[in-house]
Amino acid sequence: MAHTSYEESIKLVYKGMWLLAAVTLVEVALSLFGKGYLGFDPHGMTAILAIVGIGLIVLSLYKAYYIVYNFMHMGHEVKGLRMTVLLPMLLLVWAIFAFFNEGNAWKKRRVDVKFKNAIELNEITGKPEAPQIKVMD
Amino acid sequence: MATDTAHKEAHDTHSDEADWSGGVPVFKASYGKLMMWYFLLSDAFTFAGFLIAYGTLRFSSETWPVPDFVFQTAPFNNLGLGHGTGLPLIFVTFMSFLLIISSVTMVRAVQEGHRENKNAVVFWMFLTIIGGAGFLGCQAWEWTNLIGTEHMSLTTNPFGTYTEGGTYMNADGSVSGSETFKAGESYLIHMTHVGGDAHDDHGDHELTGEQKFLHDANAMIESQVSKGGVSMANLPGEGINFKGFILDGDGFIHRKYKTNGGELGFQEFGPKAFGALFFFITGFHGFHVLSGVVFLIIIMLNVASGIYVKRKNGYEMVEKIGLYWHFVDLVWVFVFLVFYLL
Predict the structure, then answer these.
(1) What is the model's pTM?
(2) Residue in B320, B22, B26, B44 with CA at minimum distance from that of residue A80
């Protein structure tokens, strides 16, 4: 089957293990950096946060590629099998794009509704309602 | 090695092309293996649907609980560092390593299967099962902590995020100015322990910040209960207004604060969808891990019984369940990414 020897293929597996562990640690470090835990806090800096986000996604996709190609031996399978399994996943690229856009649109509508409600309330009563609540000591 | 080359030439197993000539497996994979791949493809779409729904709902919410705030506890009393010491993401990273290592042991089992080493296959599969069961145990701890201690559920999300900075009020309504928060920080709405199970008082040592607030708030609630002004069994739906906090109908303590813009506010529940999505998606994944462990046990017992020794396809069943197990690991990579890292 494979042209690697028994000892070589065992070594490859452990190399894969260390590789995946290392990538996971880098991902966690990157995520914590993005949230400001590693000294520098990039809060609000969209450029840096975008790089962190893209970096996390790329690293996870790399892990996925490594697991599918090496652990699941997709790399050794016939090209046709590879294609019939992997090509449909490209549909998800569209799905992610479309649905995240949708979610963003919902958020904009929510903000609009809130804003318009506040305006309406102001027009009817002249000022926003102050709730009357009894206070306990 | 010479026989190996001859063997290779005869079968040409390195040809990357499908064979449509008829009477042979087209993709050179057995029916069972091929169908396992297609099942995994369909399952991947199911998980993708859930994760994309998560992303959509998250993007549609004005605020979302910050993951490293929600997931900062670990078992053994935060690894011996006591309550309140945040170890963001450490436990969940450990869970990731467990699955990665169990994937590695699975690959070893498949390799030993190719060499028809029955005992070695059993050994490596056993280690895989331990890894999987360990992951399930960790997930169970995580759920118990979130549901039992922090009172998160499918419909209640006590983790919220501030949209602007401000200063907390103490339990008696005074503002000392020392407890502040920034926009984008997450908070946890605690439940009062009055009327519940016995609570271990943390002793006489100086309490500061949130711990002090909770101690004072619980004391105020306790005194109202003994005066008869509040009944824990009959809390009104709209809540009871105290000077520094609001006690709602379920016993949650919503802390009051003053924003930097001068407005008064109180802690509100975070987006409801968070709880539902978290438990459903990690539950669905956990269900896959559980069924994977069950199948691994069955096939390991089959291997031990020697049933695959005489089969024409040898230990291919180990390969097939290996594919499923790697898929479970793969899904976790993305659940981990989406829920905890991003």
Answers:
(1) 0.87
(2) B26
Q: For every one of its 342 residues, what pLDDT tens digit does chain B have, with 9 covering 90 and above?
A: 444 444 444 445 557 788 889 988 889 999 999 999 999 999 999 999 999 999 999 999 988 998 888 888 888 777 766 666 677 788 999 999 999 999 999 999 999 999 999 999 999 999 999 999 999 999 999 999 899 888 999 998 999 999 889 999 888 888 887 888 988 888 999 999 887 765 655 555 677 788 888 888 898 888 888 888 778 888 888 888 888 898 988 889 999 998 888 888 889 999 989 999 999 999 999 999 999 999 999 999 999 999 999 898 999 999 999 999 999 999 999 999 999 998
Residues of B in contact with A104 (CB under 8 A): 59-60
Are A81 and B88 an interchain contact pair (Cβ–Cβ within 8 Å)? no
Q: Are residues B231 and B300 part of one domain? A: no
Contact with chain B for residue A63, Cβ under 8 A:
yes
Asked if residue B120 and residue B43 are part of one domain, the reply reads yes
Looking at the fold, whether B81 and B102 belong to one and the same domain comes out as: yes
Determine, yes or no, domain membership for B89: yes
Residue B190 DSSP symbol: P
Q: Count structural domains, chain B.
A: 2
| Run of H or E including B106 | helix B90-114
Among B38, B230, B333, the residue with its CB nearest the CB of A64 is B333
Predicted ipTM of the assembly = 0.85
Q: To the nearest 10°, the Cα dihedral for A98, A104, A109, A114? A: 160
- For residues B133 and B196, state if they share a domain: no
